[in-house]
Each structure stands twice: as structure tokens, then as C-alpha cells.
């Protein structure tokens, strides 16, 4: 049974054909169809001009009309409908200076990689392959269409796209494409940060993040897009705690255990949890230390993600993960209130998973992980986040004014509640009176 989104794309093709135009599914959805995996998006290629597409469909957005691209919206789903075209020279490493509407053959030749340069004719169930895409799909190869150097010069983002496809599909990058990609890598620095950030997030959440990291490293692009990461290479760690090797090897192992489709915040948290170990590394005789690397790492992670224009939520959540990734080791020795407060933190589930991967990539000591997992299961939501027994209005009614002591009293009462020493509002009010006395006049 066809997915609903595919049915809508086919309906667009049917309407175009009913009006005398040629129309096919194009690009990534054809590749995914051949691989037998669900497509995320469905693009349509046609010989209908942009203005005709706008006339034929009620809800359209002219996102790239001068490049032949119209977005058609059907019941909330958006589909790019692009006119067959040939591109004039690219002058900014991103888009052609102009386009000329043309044939399907010209349209195929201006695309980036062979496996994304195929079309599917739903009327005949036939794949139209003018660039050798099926050959490379069967061989598991990422190959640029035509002259590889020209393809990367046209759009520098294709450097990261090649790595994303190779990572996601577990394909090899063909030799000429690889060498052209490495030569073009420095020019990725000229791209808009948002475009780079989107590609990096896709690579890190692909389920093969460790391979993606190696491809970026070997492809000479890692230092361009994430200069914070290469210093991990060769940053030695104490073998009694890290028998696996240096910081890069440890991070690589942790990344290798991420599942496909994991949260971007977890993926970047794993990548960056030890990012500050190189600048914080110090030797004191035979002892190696990394004092302050969690706090400095949180700052570095947030700055990097801000530079890549990731959302504020992603920046702050990753900073939280990096800052706290060692805290769970102390969980079995925490007082009850401290433990429950930690379990109640937003993002604790991701922190727990990061800590698990961190341990598995080094000593494999998971005692603290199972302790926290049991605590979560046994306490439940109500015990971890119980309603407050005393609030600010209660303290004001008792004569206390908002200020430093005010906040201290509320935290103290909450700690006593989480420790199990206070169970009711009356007990809490009596505790405040007995411990803090009458409010200052």
C-alpha cells in the first residue's frame, strides 16, 4: 500500500499529465524506492513551466520560480515541482547565475550524484536512468555526475551531501569524486551556517555517526566545519580509565553506538561531551588531569552550535548534557533529595543515555546507570516531581519578603519533601516556623 504522501505526489503527476505535460518522480525518492526504504520527501520533475504549475494547482508557493521550482501544497504536505532545466555557470558556490528550461536529459546532467539523478515514471513503472544511477546503487557507490570537480565547484555543500549519503547508506565514495571533494573542502567555509548545520545534524543522527566523523576527517572538511573536534585526535588519556585510547577514539566509540534517528541533542552531546579535554589537559608528574573540562566543554559546545545556527533549545540542551555527563557517577552516594531533583531535570533521559554510552566507550562500568534506571522506575513521576507543599504565597502570608532568604527557604522545604522528611502542607508550614522563626519585622 502506497504512503499517503506518495499518493499526493502521484496525484500531482496525474494532473500535469492530464494537461498534456511530462512529469516524473525525481531525485531522492526514486533512490529510496529502489532501496526499498520510505522516502522522506517526494519531488516532481516536469516540462511544464513554473507559471503553468501555479495555474494548475490551487495552493502554491513560488520559492524558486526563476530556477523553475514551485512548491505545491496538498492537504498540508509540500512538494517541490521543478521544471526540467539546464544551469548556467554557478558564481557563488551555491546556485546557478541563471537557468534555461530544457529536456529531461539536460535536467539529469545538472544534478549532483548519480544515485539521485534518476526519475520514475508511475505510468509505466519504469526507472529513467540517464546517468548510471542504478549501476552505482547496486554497487553501493556515491559518484558525481559528469565532471566531479565542476559539481563541487557549483555547490560547495555537495561536499557534506556526499558524506551524508555515504554515511546514511553505508556507501563508498568513488575515487574521482572523493579527490574532487577533498579539494573543494576548504570552500565549505563560505557556505551559510544554517546549511552546514543541517547537513551535520543529518550525519550525526544517521545511525553511522562514527563513520560520518571519519569521512569528514579524512575528507579534510572536519577542521572547516567543526574545528573544535580535531584537537581530540592524539589527546592521550590515562589508560586505567580509558584503555580504548585517546579522546577521539573514545568519542568515536560512543558515536558508533548511536541509533539511527536519535535526537540531534543526544548526537551532538555524545560528539562534544569531552570536547574541552584537549584545552584542559594537564600533567602533574605521572598524573594526567582534565579539570574543568565539563564546564568549559558546555561553553564550547554552545558556542559551536550557535555558530551553526542550531536552535536555542539544541544549544542549551547539549550544553546541559556536556556540563553534567559525569554527575551520574555520584548518584549512588547522593542524598535522596539531590537524586530526585536530578531525576526530575528536563533532559535527564538523554543525560542517562549519554552517560551509558560514555561508560561503554571506556571502562564499561555501568553500576551508576542501573542505579539511576532503577530509581526512575521505582519512584515514578509523582514521587520525582511531587507538587510543592509550600509556595511563595504561603511565605508572604507568613510575613517573609521575596529575596535571597525567601528562595533559600523554598529550596530547603523542597529538599526536606524530596528526602521524605515532610509529607504534608501542615508539616511544611510548621517546619518553616520552627526552623526560621517569625518573619523579620
Walkthrough of the structure:
The structure is a single chain. This protein has 22 helices and 13 strands. It is α+β, with helices and mostly antiparallel strands and 441 residues long. The chain has four domains: 1-139, Beta Polymerase, domain 2 (2-Layer Sandwich), CATH 3.30.460.10; 144-225, Orthogonal Bundle (Hydrophobic Seed Protein); 230-384, Hypothetical protein af1432 (Orthogonal Bundle); 392-436, no CATH class. Helix 10 (209-218) crosses helix 12 (247-256), helix 12 (247-256) runs antiparallel to helix 13 and helix 13 packs across helix 16. The longest helix has 18 residues, at 367-384. The model has no long low-confidence stretch (mean pLDDT 90).
